[in-house]
Each structure stands twice: as structure tokens, then as C-alpha cells.
Amino acid sequence: MCPLVLLHPALPVLALVVVWTSPLIARRRADRARRQAENDAVPEVAAVLALAVRSGSNVQNGIDVVAQRVPGIGGESFAKMSRQLAAGALLADVLADLPQHLGEAARPLSRAIGAGVSSGGELVPALDRVARELRERQHQQRLEAAQRLPVLLLFPLVTCILPAFALLTVIPLLVSSIAQLFGGGL
User: Fold this and answer.
1) Residues 6 or more apart whose Cβ sits within 8 Å of residue 114
2) What phi-psi label fits residue 72: left (phi over 0), alpha (psi between -120 and 50 degrees) or beta?
3) How many CA atoms lie within 13 A of 135 on its CB side?
4) Is residue 157 part of a domain?
5) Per-residue b/e over 107-140, b at no fewer than 16 CB within 10 Å?
6) What CATH number corresponds to the domain at position 135?
7) How many domains does the chain have?
8) Burial 22-39, CB ≥16 within 10 A → b, else e
9) Cβ neighbours of residue 7 under 8 Å, at least 6 residues apart?
10) How far is Cα 15 from Cα 34, in angstroms, rounded to an integer?
11) Per-residue confidence of the chain (186 residues) as pLDDT tens digits?
């Protein structure tokens, strides 16, 4: 008979559940990390693009600057856009695909660039506004995550720290009190 079953009959079932769910949990964490990286990249991309356009570059050259200067997923997405534009794709089509490459957080950026290019209006204030709004949204999300932290820390507190506190303080006190009550000395 298996030694795990001798310890407790539920251990093999628990081991199977852990083995079965660990790839799902790892995939969810990777997806969450990718979405977070996309959300973090968009304000930086908007700020660098605004800086490039403010310095006199057109939008296509600004996309090349972002592709060269921004690290991570933001630069990679803009490098894809730059290659598509170099291959002859229309800027409107490339901008429409931006949320697919950089996530839904890039949709306001895509709209702002598209509106600025199509109307010939001021692109820099729109890019600055998008970057500011996205940074404010990130700040709000981080505040909400910080407010959830005490609730998340409640489980380790209750399951680990409080029992250890009881074992190290309350139980020795009870044992010595009972020993003194019954006249024996420990």
C-alpha cells in the first residue's frame, strides 16, 4: 500500500488536486502579469510619443522613436507597428490593431492618435491627457490593491501567527497554572 495513504487517506486526493490546478494557477498568474505589464507600458508609451511629436517628429517617426526607446512590451508593440508601417500598412489600420498588441489600456491612446492625425488637430495635448488619465487610473488601482492587502493577510495571520502565539504563550501558562492548582510542580 502507498505510504501516503497510510498517513491520511485524503493526501492522494489533495496531491492530485494540487497537480491538476497548478498549471491553471500558473497560467492565470502569467496572464495577470502580462496584463499588468501592458497597463504599465501604455502611459510611458504615450509620454514618449508626445515627447517625440512635441520635438517635431511626425506620428510615424514618433512610433519609431517609441519602438527604439521604450523597453518591454510597449516598445515591442510599437516595433510591430513600425514594421507594419514600413511594409506599407495604413496608419489607421495599424492604430486599430494597437489594443490587440498592447491591451485594452491602449484603446484611448489609439483613439487619440487617430483623432489627432485625421483631424489635423493638436496631438500633443491629447497624448499628454491620455498619459495623465492612464497614470491616474494606475494610481487608483494600486490604492485599491493596497486597501485589499489587510484582507489578504488575514488568512496567514489566523492560520499561522495566532496558533503559534497560542502555543508559545497561552498553553505554557495554562500548563503551569494547572500544575500549581493540583499541587504538582513541573
Assistant:
1) 92, 95, 96
2) left
3) 11
4) no
5) ebbbbbbbebbeeeeebeebbbebbeebbeebee
6) 1.20.81.30
7) 1
8) eeeeeeeeeeeeeeeebb
9) none
10) 29
11) 455 445 667 777 777 877 888 888 889 988 888 888 877 888 889 999 999 988 888 888 999 999 999 888 888 989 999 999 999 988 888 888 888 888 888 888 888 888 888 877 788 898 899 989 989 998 999 999 999 999 988 888 888 888 888 888 888 888 888 888 887 655
Which grid coordinates belong to 75? Answer: 516598445
Claim: this prediction has a pTM higher than 0.90? no
Cell triple for residue 103? Answer: 491591451
Which among 155, 154, 173, 124 has a CA at the least distance from the CA of 115?
A: 124
113 inside domain: yes
In a domain, 18, yes or no: yes
Three cell numbers written together for 183: 499541587
